[in-house]
Specification:
Elements lengths: L3 E5 L20 E5 L24 H6 L14 E5 L1 E2 L7 E2 L1 H13 L2 E3 L2 H6 L9 E8 L8 E4 L2 E4 L4 H11 L8 E4 L10 H10 L3 E4 L12 H18 L7 E3 L11 H5 E4 L2 E4 L2 E7 L15 E5 L10 H9 L14 E4 L16 E4 L1
Parallel strand pairs: 1-18, 3-7, 3-16, 4-5, 6-7, 7-10, 10-11, 12-15, 15-16, 17-18
Antiparallel strand pairs: 1-2, 8-9, 13-14
Helix pairs in contact: 2-4
The chain binds zinc ion.
């Protein structure tokens, strides 16, 4: 186990809203919390870029972080909630062109995709200076993943969600394109292709989540029913992709189970197969906190509706605009998944359980 080093360096934050001035005079100090198994030797030399990563001391790893990018790993992360991608724009459907517009905006404005599963594990691999963003699609509609036949050949519909995501994967290889698809019993229509689609998703870096068997409100169910709702869908997916582990859940209608039944949603067994849920998604209405934030509840994560209709000032562009105007703070990666870099003013929100085994860099 690595020791946790907390470096408190003075650094004035630029471009952020409010209250950095009071830390300007904080002296540089360093607090070391040694772990049980003892630490490594420190060296004076802090710049030897030709070294392999594992040879760097903790101080060198932290010194390599580009602080001019204002990393803020306690900033917000948007988990976008999409449903359909189709010709008619509505509260629950984006047109192909509007979905392209969203993706173009994200790419041009410093957002890079991460998987919900990595978020839930605190494994943020986003390049330094960029903001992670998570795309989710509920209900397994055919227009999320549609095969069409062209000249006798079966291809992915270029205007379905997956087709458009692949278009951007090719256009911008550093966009880190990925998404989670939340399924019930409907696996993107086209039953004959269910197997092909699920295997294709897993092989191409996408994730599959659970959206329950009957799409009922969890609040109306008891633990036995919840077990069936989750376990049966996991088992259906398992038949198609036996090695893939479903570990995320999107709540139908955003309805949370009664408190006494929450554990059945998190862990259980159904018809011989165990399941464990590491991230549970609500329906709205605001960005999620950082996975390292004590305010994050992985059993009830906020999402932002990826729509511009009936969003009541809580839609995708409302939040994009808030970040542009620095009215809210977005997560800005320090570029190293093993280091969590945060401004000192957020110190009290750091969830020490989530940063265990990582270096913490407070400035
Ligand atoms: Zn749904």
């Amino acid at each position: 186990m690595k020791k946790i080093i907390i470096l408190i360096a003075l650094l004035l934050l630029t471009g952020c809203s409010g209250k950095p001035a009071d830390i300007a005079d904080t002296p540089v100090e360093k607090v070391e919390i040694p772990a049980a198994s003892g630490g490594e030797e420190e060296t004076e030399n802090i710049k030897e870029p030709e070294k392999e990563n594992e040879e760097f001391t903790d101080e060198e790893v932290i010194a390599a972080i580009d602080m001019s990018l204002n990393p803020n790993e306690l900033g917000e992360i948007m988990i976008l909630m999409y449903h359909g991608i189709g010709e008619e724009e509505s509260a629950w459907q984006r047109t192909p062109d509007n979905f392209r517009k969203d993706l173009e905006y994200m790419y041009q404005n410093g957002y890079r995709m991460i998987s919900l599963n990595d978020y839930a594990k605190g494994e943020i691999k986003t390049k330094a200076g960029f903001t992670p963003i998570i795309l989710t699609f509920d209900d397994g509609r055919q227009n999320n993943f549609n095969y069409i036949e062209v000249n006798g050949e079966v291809i992915i519909d270029p205007d379905c969600a997956v087709g458009i995501l692949e278009e951007f994967k090719n256009k911008y290889p550093d966009f880190d394109v990925t998404a989670s698809f939340f399924l019930g019993t409907n696996i993107f229509g086209q039953e004959e292709y269910a197997d092909k689609k699920l295997n294709w998703l897993v092989e191409n870096g996408y994730d599959i989540g659970n959206h329950t068997f009957s799409h009922n409100e969890m609040a109306t169910l008891d633990s036995e029913q919840i077990r069936m709702e989750i376990g049966s869908v996991n088992n259906i997916i398992k038949q198609h992709v036996p090695d893939y582990i479903v570990e995320t859940l999107a709540l139908p209608h955003g309805s949370n189970p009664k408190d006494e039944f929450i554990e059945s949603m998190i862990k259980g067994e159904y018809e011989g197969n165990k399941y464990e849920t590491i991230a549970v998604l609500d329906v709205g209405w605001r960005p999620a906190y950082s996975p390292f934030d004590t305010l994050t509840n992985f059993r009830s994560l906020y999402r932002v509706t990826a729509s511009e209709i009936d969003v009541d000032n809580c839609g995708i562009y409302d939040y994009f605009n808030s970040y542009e105007k620095n009215l809210r703070e977005r997560f800005i990666s320090d570029g190293n998944p093993d280091v969590v870099t945060i401004p000192q003013r957020h110190n009290e929100y750091l969830n020490m359980d989530m940063v265990e085994g990582k270096l913490v860099n407070i400035y």
